[in-house]
# Entry
Amino acid sequence: MSDVEYRQSAFTPPAGATDILLVRHGESAPAVPGKPFDLVDGQGDPELAPAGRVHAERVGRRLADERLDALYVTNLRRTTETAAPLAARLGLVPQVEKDLREVHLGEFEGGLFRQKVAQNDPVIQRLHSEGRWDVIPGAEPAEALRGRVAGAIGRLAAAHPDERIAVFTHGGVIGEIMSIASGSLPMAFLGASNGSVSQIVVTAGRWIVRRFNDTAHLDGGLDEQPAALS
# Structure
């Protein structure tokens, strides 16, 4: 009998890989008919709701003791506001990666998308059945979304080999990243809750999914529900 044992090994990122934590912003302010959100480059830019500020604080506590080499946000303020508690704890200044901003929703921007979702509008039904955002008039084509998201992740990985970074971004973008990494249908991962943490490891040849929609730091447990985009 041999005395040699081979235990299951723990995951170790390959040399040169970048470990990326993807944090969905906290819940943003409600959409009110007749009072569209302010726009930034044509996209709705609501601030965090009070519940979203709680999400931000809990994300800050959850990640405060993790080794993080950089923080990134988009050009939409709900990500900056969500990153703020963690940035203050770590003494890091978030950098802006504009190409990880939310999916452009065309004529449904400014908060109208939420109303259409609540009404189960026929366009929303088509969106889910066809797996394309651009069934919404003027919305971002799938190919354009994938190109900008993949390009942004590639730039971040090139800038941070052998490092871990946290990226505060949006539900549609997290879904697209997970779709690219896993080879899934385009909208298979549209369930990230506000304040959740997902994770990929990016190597020269592949993206490795490590977690999706981790909400252990939030109330609600397994009943935590994702919110509409924007």
